[in-house]
Amino acid sequence: xxxxxxxxxGDYIYIGTAKIIVRSGDYTKLAIEGSMPVLRxxxxxELGEHPSKxxxxxxxxxxxxxxxxxxxxxxxxxxxxxxxxxxxxxxxEVVASINGWIAKENLYKALKAARPLVEEFD
Length: 122
Prior knowledge:
By secondary structure, this protein is α+β, with helices and mostly antiparallel strands. The chain has helices at residues 53-67, 74-87, 92-103, 107-121; strands at residues 3-7, 12-15, 18-21, 28-32, 38-40. It is globular and about 45 Å long.
């Protein structure tokens, strides 16, 4: 069963590493079949000019999810988590949740669990 997404004019969605922008003047309904990673505009976070440690970790997870490759970035993840926890020990519960999803090899759920990093600790 395909994933169906309704987008407003001007909205965008990421499918894999492609950014799809709605240029029509009407709502657009997409049916996405296959196993490419998908992120809505509201879930996508830009790194920015001076990123916090929390934002840098979220964006690293986001990139890993969108590219379908966490394995090659595992050392970077470990370093970013250590940096974040040294600066913000209160993020430990969020990191534990992220680690649980990574252990289950579910990067989408790990990314969703990481959202509070940007909302609370950015």
